[in-house]
Structures
1.
Amino acid sequence: MQNIFSNIKTNLTALQKKTGIPVTFYFIWSSLSILFSVFCLIFFRSTFCYISASVIIIVHCIFYLLYSTWAKTDEKLRVFTFAVYKKTINYFAFLQFCAHSIILLLAWSKQIISSSTYAVVYWIMLIINILYLFNFRKLNNKNNLLDKGLLTLEKRGTKTVYVPVRFSSFNDKSTIAPTTLAAIKAEQTNLKKAQETSKEPKTKIKLFFIKSGLFVLSWLDAIVWAVSVVIFVNSLVFQLFEIPSESMVPELYVGTRVAAVRFLTNPEIPLSNTRIPVTLGVKRFGQYVLSNPRYVLKKDQALNDFINDFLFKITFTLVRRPKVDENGIEIADPLIKRLIGMPGEQLTIIDDQVYVRKNLNEPFTPLLADNQYAYTFKSGRKANTARIRYNTITEPLRTAILNWDELKNNVTKEYFDKVAKELLDFFKSVRLSKPYSSEYEDTYGFLFMAISSIDERYFEAYAAILKNNPGRFLSDLKDYLFGWESALPPENIYEENCLKANLLSKLLFAEALKQYIIFKESSAEQSDTYIKAQNSLRDYTLLYIRQYFDARNLPPFPEQDVLGKGQYFFMGDNRYNSLDCRHWSFESFEKLLYSKDPYSLRYSSNLHPFAISSDRIRAIAVFSLF
């Protein structure tokens, strides 16, 4: 055993003498690498693990055998030999890191190890491979390269500079490296003359293949290191992302490339699913690249996602294989959204305006700066409609929606009571003489759903009840109009807004029914007043409520609390075409417009608000390229 350690020490001493690599760091790196590979062979059973771990162990042993041959002589390494060794050991260290990373990823994906075990073992593996950087630094030190003949010194004016040597021009039998530029040029000239005067074809062929091989290897070396740099830079420092949807219109359109900084927000360790838990420089209204919280990374998809991300990075977003959910539906990942809600805040949205507060006992205050970024009816921002597939904002529509806002906001209790009593008095005093069909009497009940238009079938049925049973109709109408007054009052500005929207729907329905009865009782062929009232009711229920109410309003979130530490609320700028923190999915449920009124207008809502934790933030978008 003592002889073995003595031989290893002798071999490593020869390594340090001939290459400049420090003995201690190399021994630690090499020994731990072999032990980790043996550990992988024992515990992580997969074909890739068996092959790659075995190759790693064998290569380390081959290196030790090589050092034993170097220990037998005190001669310097040939320049060509040293250059080849430098390239080989650097490539091997990099490939070892890649192999160990993939071994662990496969072990995790096959559920051989848990996520917590994976994190611990990965960091151990990473530390082992980082140890090689000390060897790399010493091996590529300028003084070491000068001593080994890969650099030379040249006087340029008053400065002495290092000049790289083209070792491909050296005779492969040279044993002593030239140390000056003049000596190098002289040897290159002599070698060129020797090649020109040589009459041996085999020598020329040999030199041709050596030079060709070195040329190919130089390009291969450049490509490999370029890919490596791209991977490491994209994972830790800076990356391009492609906009997958129209959620950030009008600032970002589909296909726009966004440059993002990664090192401030959870940079990922290359070739792993491990991130450094850092969140710095996160500010309100910033644009952030997010991991889609709806996309849950399944272990059996880990390797496929690794390949997807690899191709996405090295091609600068040109190649992107879609991610899919369990049903095979494509999921956009990553996302780019704007940060609106910060930790310690509760927020709500009323008619496009975001409000926030930090104390639940204090009133909400408008977040006016949000209007600089939001693409809404109220903000008035313009977009390049030629680049939008689904344009949700036109000037006529903007005018109509803002008019409805104004009408709704003017519905005070005094105004409602006045108009509602006038309508109730009309139905009390009217005497119906025309026949009305009871065919659609099953629609009666003053319970309306904003799904289809409230048309003449409803009005016919309600008129028939009014004619045949006026006492029942008037009692039901009174409950419909005034039943909300016996309920608890609104608790916040969102409920106040919902109450006003609900009351306006009641007035519009009662007015449309009134104009229908007047039209029918007059025996006229057409009534512009009735058509206008019917259109107003239809546009309000189907457009203002059904299509845009949830897109422009949000109840206080979190419901009875503020956002916790590390919790953020993100939205797309294109508020009417963005799947963000307001909507976990497009799945809808039936909802009362004003929850405390049993006669409230019902509509289909897809509001499922949620917060995104800081560990989902992948990068800070800084500017768009094209």
2.
Amino acid sequence: MTFVCTECKKEGGILDFGFCKQKHPNAIKKKIGQEGTDSVLFTPTGKTFSFGKIDAENLNDLIVFKATIMQVSDISNYYIEKTYRCTECYEETSKICDEYRDIYDKDTVPVCVHCEQAPMKLDKNKSIIGNIRKVMLQETNDESGINPRRIEAHLTSKNVFDLQAGKDYKFEAKVWTISYGKKDNYNRFILDVTRVRCLDEDTSIMPTANEIEFFRKMDKKLVVESLAPEIIFRNNEKMAGIISFLSGGRVDGIRGDMSCLYVGDPSTGKSQILNALHSLDKHSFKISGRSTSAAGMVMGVDNLPDGTRMATFGPVILAHEHFVCIDEMDKMNENDRSMLHDVMEDEVAHLNKVGINLTMPAQTKIIGAANPKRSRYNMNDTIMRNVNMPNSFLARFGYVFLCRDNFTRDMESQKIDRINYIKENGLDKFIETNGLLSHEMLVKYLNYAKSLTPSFTSGSLSKLKDLYLDLKFQEQDLGSLDIDTRAYHDIIRGAYSFARFDFSDKVDVYHVNMAWNLYNEALKSFNMKTKGEFIDKQLENRTTLSSLEEFSE
């Protein structure tokens, strides 16, 4: 495809206009036959193509595709145009970079092209320099399979700024290749990006007006039971995951995200609840603490074949404003846990390596699961001796639930009956028979709830203060979970999430009650002593949200 610059009166490919893009970008036009031109400043000119299918047949093609930014290098620069001046006659000449952004002449040209008597020296003051940044792109979640493809890309001009790791962008780029090295006959693909546009931030599936009205009237207990419906007798644990999912935002510099942790025996549904939560948000991640390092989980450094150092981002950075499910958190080593510990509190991640100094936002919720050291949880021992986690790290989780394999014979029988029914008839049939929400309707419900921004009513927290102080100074067994100001903030975050869950524009005493009671249920799962129940006459006529007593089948 041919382009023309109406200022310089030259023709060529889109990559031949580096100087023009800096000086007069509006003058770049697409040549249409012999009759006229068409502006290409904002409208993509390349053919739309699937990122994962780029191959040798696309060399030198201008293509349009979607991709996610996974790694970025520091911003560097290159010469768009070099201006040389003769040391004798003082005449000037300019040389523009080629499509590979190279100008092969050194800072001194041996012979002046005008007088042919003296050398020409580079005049840096009149030369034009552009920005360049190397990034690693990956297929978007909606297009990729098990092993998403990655390709290096080069961004120039204003495109190098305002890039957010983990976000999806629409790119227009030319496909070319460069060698892996001097001793290697093989080449690797490079995408030379000409334009970038961030895709719409909110692509969540939202309910219709009729569906919202149905959600408001229905028993909210159905929402909890519809999450991982194959799991029975774990509604408090499911509720904690939902409340964590609905938390978020910062108010007056204080984090609004609340994390959640499930500790306990194997085969108690912890991983299945994590899988169910992960399926609710396509921007979330699920990883294993056993096989993920701190660099792979949060942020690290990688080297490209040409020696360029790139900051590589892990799930905790890529899931900014979303969440990460981490299974087997007890298998993480101390250094990895320490890095995650800092991110969970400050909601930013720092990387200070040679040549790279980055601070990235990480408002990411962590929903984790951990197993006891000796397979079964020992109720006669402390939580720190049972699980390979210090109390300071456990305190970063708003709700910590102990899941024990202690069902009675009747409860175990009901669990097996449910497993058998789903095996014989399918999960969809079970959901339909029991009047539960389908996965799509559950996603719509939670997406709409998360979009709400309720405000606290006057006096809604006054009762909570007295209950918290009673609990704070209640004598507990040595090695119990800490109850401190951080826990108080988490109860408030829980109340905010409960208001969202209830489709309410106000956080009132009812929602604070629900958050307090759920926190008490978490403490009781570890046999910790609790102090007082949140009782208020205003709650007697509230029927939109089932009480936590009803959550326990």
3.
Amino acid sequence: MKKIHNKWLKGGLLGLLAIFGVASCSDDHFDLNTTNASGTLWQNLVATNQVDSFTMILEKTIVNKKSYGIPATITYKNLLNSSRVFTVWAPKNGTYNAAHWLKLLAAGDNETVEKQFVRNHIANFNYNGAYATSERIRLYNAKYAVYDVPDNTFKGVPISSDALYKNIASTNGTLHVLNGMAPYLPSLRESLQDNANVSDINQYIIDKDTLEFIKNWSTPGSTVNGEIQYVDSYFVESNKILPSIAMNEDSLSAAIYPSNTAWNEAISKISPFFNYKQKYSYYDADANKYRVDSINPDSLQEMYTKKVIFNNMFYSLREQPAFNIQTATPESVQQFFNTSDSLVSTNYYFSDYNYHQHKPYCNVLTEGKLPATSSNGYAFITDHFNFIANKTWQNDIVLDAEYFWYLNKEKSKYIALSSPSGISHYVSDGNRNDSVKGNVHGYVYQEFPSTSSSARPIVSFNLPGVLSGTYDIYVVIVPENMVDKSNLSPKKNKFNATLEYDYDVNGKASSITSPNTFESDPTKVDTILLFENFKFPYCYANLANSYPVLSLATVMSIADRKTVTPTLNIDCFILKGKDE
């Protein structure tokens, strides 16, 4: 999540006011009509009865975003008394708890008062009520509000119809008087604040906030005491873990937040799948020796564990095919999550089926709760972490054999020198042999021809993305006549399988070899289970150089040559996650 902030740091009051400047708008809708205007917004606020509580708050509230390090020297009295153009909706005395906001200011909580109250009643540009329209406008705190002129309401709050308080023209905007305080709704991110039940996740998010000064985008001014003073400073506000929809007021999303109990459950449930060790060895073919990568296993385990939680936390309602955003309510969102056939989290918009939540698991994720409404969506807070491993983060791994960059050339043997990475065959309706049952994944398979008719090829592949979890491991073998209709008597394959894992610093691996020899069925695309319920002791996902290695070794006697081919035609390898 990133936001860019442009701060004009010039001397004096005008420079500070310009910090909060925006481009002028030439649309007639926003144009000032100063013919009947008398005084600035601030002067008219002071002169208007029944809003002195509001003016007292404005006079004490500092125009500030302290996290950006901007000098805090002006108040909203100064801002509304300047030439900047605003519209102000001022709540009448006695229609809200003004003492609450004054108490917060006295306690030094300027930020809350500014964002939730003051800026919630101010908008850039001039909305003078001259046009009988209902508009969705952006407020000074980046929230959105409906200003309904025909209905004479602002954020659903009635605007005073008394001629003394309605559409008060000013030299720098328009003042409206409200019969109540405009309601403030927190964003999905803000909804976590001041909620002790989700304090763990809230603190983790806060710890990921960053603010970076972009020197190349900033305009330097004079040099004081050897340091450049920037008159135009750009800052990029980021959060390393949150997607933009958590803060973007234009979004409409649902969040599944874990309570503190659920947060700890999630960590306990996910972290065993990211059980890294400190040293991983790998073969460096260029140097013809084994090398060792050293990592911080605890750091990686924590990072990827919490990444899983956040990857499945936010759901843009605009991206859910079966959801009608036009009629979104807490009840409709609740029903959608309870009955949906499929849910797509923000992190997996463009991914395949594997990474989506599917029926019947969708309805357990939110525990049937009614979500709380936020300014940009709906927030569930769950008592438990209800995501299932092999339906969420232990996704099935499908490794196509044409991905030759995963071919382990150091361990592969007796493959024809003319095609050491194999030969790709593309299957189409025009060339496929219809007598062969089944389909090839991605319409491509890889042929690994042997060096001779008597050779016994070994084909070895590095397995990417393997977690420290339990898998069923398969290979899909393609008949040799898949694209050769003239071959009426295809030969089968016979082979053993060996899985190597947990290499030590000298390159020696723990390994397991299939007790039986496998035979493929030459009449079909044959999916063969090599190892059942195999648990990898260590995680290999997200590592640059180290992998478990799966090898198929052809088994063929002289007597087999009539019915067995040494050439291996491999569609893909499949590792199916088994953990729940």
